[in-house]
UniProtKB/TrEMBL annotation:
Function: Centrosomal protein involved in regulation of centriole duplication. Required to limit centriole duplication to once per cell cycle by preventing centriole reduplication.
Compartment(s): Cytoplasm, Cytoskeleton, Microtubule organizing center, Centrosome, Centriole
Organism: Salarias fasciatus (Jewelled blenny)
Name assigned to this protein: Centrosomal protein of 76 kDa
One Pfam family recorded for the sequence: CEP76_N
Length: 613
């Protein structure tokens, strides 16, 4: 490709500026001095230009230069470079993102993974072969991204770039350029969640990591490269899962960088302040618990859950798992929110070995959403957060259901004093009417409508209340939270000191909900084709012919829509039109029979097996 002299000189100047910015001469001098020092002597061997270039290449200096040049060309979108295809994934992302020069941006580039020893013996996938994959999810200051899935390996090919905008926190100043001092005060981490998807589509949480990105503020040129050791989750939270190499870069570059001592001092002060707040809350919680036990000694056996472990084994107050979460236009009503939460599958935390004990693990919201499955506590915390966003007076209840199994569900109180239970796993709702134990024997009493047996405590993002009534049975409990003889409350000020957004640096940030990436119509058509094939094969084994009626199939879609609407909104409509259409479509002497089955997956074979049962 030939360039006019003006463009050629401009391109040379760009390359020259980048080499100066990288201090390439200093790096070459260091390598040269080291090579001469390690050389056995001029009498034995002379240092050749080829050896020196090989050393530069082995140190990765040439690769760093080329990466910087590729990135700058893409970022400035010069027409001379658009014709050259790039093998890496990050320039594609940058082509799609227009960088606002008046906004500060953080460019996080994943340069690859290594030491994922669980996949040390993983064979190389053949072309077209279905294999297990890794997907990296990221969240930073209300922005969420995910990488393309890559095959699981000891050194997975996770190479992708993500561009985060950094806004000012002060009201009315979100459009202004944030400086180094302003960014130093932002303790929001970049939350990295690594998910493994196996060949059957089942997901598993591999690691959850909070990255403090502010080391880039003290790096020359506003760019740094770090290796991050990802730890396992749950019972394996002390074991390393693998290492990711990350590059962090600020755009536009800082005119004046901070010293490393300033950044480290700020981080140390935040850790000390967080540790002091957590210590004071722990002292208060112990005193509160002693007072609770003094009311009745039997309170020792009640399910009063003040702290819970997250996926990283960190103990946090349960109130910190609930926030006010608004879904925008993604969810239109509280009942639709309940339906959405119920679609996330239930899975208890995996544990190695037997035993009747339940593994303790409450997931952070991002890990729960990315995995797409969790235990009843994860579902209840998410549903409570969404109901709070819709303006309801909602709480998470911790207690037991049938056979004394520990369980968590959601309670909402109406302005008229009515109490409704929400089962987050099924989206079912139950109206609670308390039994009066002092009523005459023949007086009519309401029958329990919910599957819940006992309730030990309730909480949301602002309050925590323990049940101190004579009986913790749900049907006898009165949910009058203002009555201290029935519910013992924790200090709201003490809770807010460790649970309010931004109160401590260790509090995980709240991620937003994202619009669905699935094409529902295409997935529905594909699933119907797979189900037809399975039905035809099954009937063929029984020596039965199969003929499909496309007209009747189309009519059934209105019935499915009505069932979905009833599940989301609690109302049924369109049944008369469906019945009339079916009567007209079914020939005389024939009978139409149909039965709806609800699934939480899109696996056609599993669905067909359920239908046969």
């Amino acid at each position: 490709m030939s360039l006019p002299p003006q463009k050629a000189s401009e391109l040379k100047q760009i390359i020259h500026n980048h080499l100066l910015q990288m201090d390439i001469h200093g790096k070459i001098r260091d390598v040269l001095a080291e090579s001469v020092r390690d050389d056995p002597g001029p009498a034995q061997r002379a240092l050749s230009e080829t050896d020196f270039l090989h050393t530069l290449h082995r140190r990765g200096i040439i690769d760093d230069v080329m990466k910087d040049l590729h990135f700058t060309q893409e970022a400035t979108t010069r027409p001379e470079t658009t014709s050259r295809p790039e093998p890496a994934a990050h320039p594609v992302e940058l082509k799609k993102t227009s960088i606002d020069p008046s906004r500060r941006c953080l460019y996080l580039q994943v340069l690859g993974g290594k030491a994922f020893l669980e996949h040390l013996q993983e064979p190389e996938p053949l072309p077209g072969q279905v294999c297990s994959t890794f997907t990296l999810y990221l969240h930073f200051r209300n922005q969420r991204f995910r990488s393309r899935p890559v095959p699981c390996a000891c050194e997975p090919d996770l190479k992708e770039g993500f561009l985060f905008q950094i806004h000012k926190d002060a009201a009315g100043e979100g459009s202004k350029m944030v400086d180094a001092t302003g960014m130093l005060s932002m303790c929001d981490p970049v939350h990295l969640v690594l998910i493994k998807t196996d060949t059957s589509g089942e997901t598993a949480l591999v690691s959850s990591y909070f990255l403090d990105w502010r080391a880039v503020l003290s790096s020359p040129g506003g760019k740094t490269c770090i290796a991050v050791e990802l730890m396992g989750v749950g019972s394996e939270c002390k074991l390393p899962a693998g290492v990711l190499t990350l590059s962090l870069e600020l755009f536009p570059p800082l005119s004046e960088t901070l010293s490393r001592d300033v950044v480290r001092t700020q981080q140390s002060l935040e850790r000390q302040r967080t540790a002091e707040k957590e210590r004071l809350f722990l002292v208060y919680a112990k005193q509160w618990w002693r007072e609770f036990l003094e009311i009745r000694p039997s309170h020792q056996s009640k399910l009063v859950k003040i702290f819970a472990q997250d996926e990283n084994g960190v103990n946090r107050p349960v109130c910190s798992y609930v926030r006010v979460l608004r879904a925008g236009r993604l969810l239109e009503s509280p009942r639709q929110a309940a339906c959405f939460v119920s679609l996330l599958a239930q899975q208890r935390a995996p544990v190695v070995g037997g035993g009747a004990g339940k593994q303790e693990q409450w997931c952070t919201l991002l890990a729960f959403l990315c995995t797409g499955k969790g235990d009843c506590e994860d579902h209840a915390a998410l549903l409570c957060s969404l109901l709070l966003g819709f303006g309801l007076d909602a709480y998470v209840c911790v207690g037991t259901k049938g056979r004394g199994t520990p369980h968590a569900w959601v309670l909402s109180r109406g302005a008229d004093g009515s109490v409704t239970f929400w089962e987050s796993l099924t989206a079912h709702r139950y109206l609670h009417r308390a039994v009066d134990p002092d009523a005459p024997p023949l007086a009519p009493q309401p029958r329990p409508s919910s599957p819940y047996r006992t309730v030990g405590c309730v909480f949301n993002h602002r309050c925590f209340l323990a049940n101190c009534q004579p009986s913790d049975a749900v049907e006898l409990s009165v949910f009058d939270f203002q009555n201290p003889s029935r519910w013992k409350a924790m200090s709201e000020e003490a809770l807010q000191s460790v649970c309010a957004p931004g109160s401590t640096a260790s509090l995980p940030p709240l991620p937003p909900l994202c619009a669905p990436s699935l094409d529902a119509a295409a997935a529905s058509n594909q699933l119907e084709l797979e189900m037809r094939r399975l039905v035809s094969e099954h009937r063929k084994d029984l020596d039965l012919a199969t003929v499909w009626d496309d007209h009747l199939s189309y009519l059934l879609s209105s019935a499915l829509w009505a069932y979905e609407l009833e599940r989301c909104a609690g109302v049924s409509c369109g049944n008369e039109e469906f019945q009339d259409a079916v009567r007209r479509a079914v020939p005389d002497g024939h009978t139409f029979k149909g039965f709806p089955i609800h699934f939480l997956h899109r696996n056609a074979r599993r669905a067909f097996s359920t239908c046969l049962r």
